[in-house]
């Protein structure tokens, strides 16, 4: 917190660019990537990006996330449950199933799964087992929740302002 340790400025990557698109930190130039509706339009290859963490929530289907590969990335990790045949890997549970020559788009499951799965995995692996279970997670509010009170077509409880709403809801 406070002042940056190094000088931070912005500049244009070339004279033909209308606005500043490069962040300069201590003389190191970093091209800023703008939002794109199609991940294949992102210049991952040009930027030397190898791994993309897909956390927008928009490209959770394997085929959609593969757009990052067409943009030049080598691998994509979807930070949510995925559809369309993407391998789901959870560290300390099944990460050993990762095959780098086969799995170019993988899912890291949900935040709830990443909290619960390793614990259950150890209980089962060590022979304790689990007969029944109940888990509650406390989750930050998300973009789908209203920031002020308003009508929610999906769920009347979801119409409450997110910052003061402690009513159970679903995520992921």
UniProtKB/TrEMBL annotation:
<protein>
    <submittedName>
        <fullName>Glycosomal glyceraldehyde-3-phosphate dehydrogenase</fullName>
    </submittedName>
</protein>
<dbReference type="Pfam" id="PF02800">
    <property type="entry name" value="Gp_dh_C"/>
</dbReference>
<comment type="subunit">
    <text>Homotetramer.</text>
</comment>
<comment type="similarity">
    <text>Belongs to the glyceraldehyde-3-phosphate dehydrogenase family.</text>
</comment>
<dbReference type="GO" id="GO:0005829">
    <property type="term" value="C:cytosol"/>
</dbReference>
<dbReference type="Pfam" id="PF00044">
    <property type="entry name" value="Gp_dh_N"/>
</dbReference>
<dbReference type="InterPro" id="IPR020831">
    <property type="entry name" value="GlycerAld/Erythrose_P_DH"/>
</dbReference>
<dbReference type="InterPro" id="IPR020829">
    <property type="entry name" value="GlycerAld_3-P_DH_cat"/>
</dbReference>
<dbReference type="GO" id="GO:0006096">
    <property type="term" value="P:glycolytic process"/>
</dbReference>
<dbReference type="GO" id="GO:0051287">
    <property type="term" value="F:NAD binding"/>
</dbReference>
<dbReference type="InterPro" id="IPR020830">
    <property type="entry name" value="GlycerAld_3-P_DH_AS"/>
</dbReference>
<keyword id="KW-0520">NAD</keyword>
<keyword id="KW-0560">Oxidoreductase</keyword>
<dbReference type="GO" id="GO:0004365">
    <property type="term" value="F:glyceraldehyde-3-phosphate dehydrogenase (NAD+) (phosphorylating) activity"/>
</dbReference>
<dbReference type="InterPro" id="IPR036291">
    <property type="entry name" value="NAD(P)-bd_dom_sf"/>
</dbReference>
<dbReference type="InterPro" id="IPR020828">
    <property type="entry name" value="GlycerAld_3-P_DH_NAD(P)-bd"/>
</dbReference>
<feature type="domain" description="Glyceraldehyde 3-phosphate dehydrogenase NAD(P) binding">
    <location>
        <begin position="1"/>
        <end position="111"/>
    </location>
</feature>
């Amino acid at each position: 917190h406070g002042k940056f340790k190094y000088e931070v400025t912005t500049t244009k990557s070339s004279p033909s660019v209308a606005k500043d698109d490069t962040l300069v930190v201590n003389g190191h130039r970093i091209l800023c990537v703008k939002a794109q509706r199609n991940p294949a339009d992102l210049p991952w290859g040009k930027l030397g990006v190898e791994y993309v963490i897909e956390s927008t929530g928009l490209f959770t289907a394997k085929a959609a996330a593969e757009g990052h590969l067409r943009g030049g990335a080598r691998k994509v990790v979807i930070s949510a449950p995925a559809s369309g045949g993407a391998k789901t890997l959870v560290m300390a549970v099944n990460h050993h199933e990762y095959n780098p020559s086969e799995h170019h788009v993988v899912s890291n499951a949900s935040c709830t799964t990443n909290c619960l799965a390793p614990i259950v995995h150890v209980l089962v692996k060590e022979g304790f087992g689990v007969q029944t279970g109940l888990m509650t997670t406390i989750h930050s509010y998300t973009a789908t929740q209203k920031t002020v009170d308003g009508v929610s077509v999906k769920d009347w409880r979801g119409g409450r302002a997110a910052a003061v709403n402690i009513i159970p809801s679903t995520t992921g």
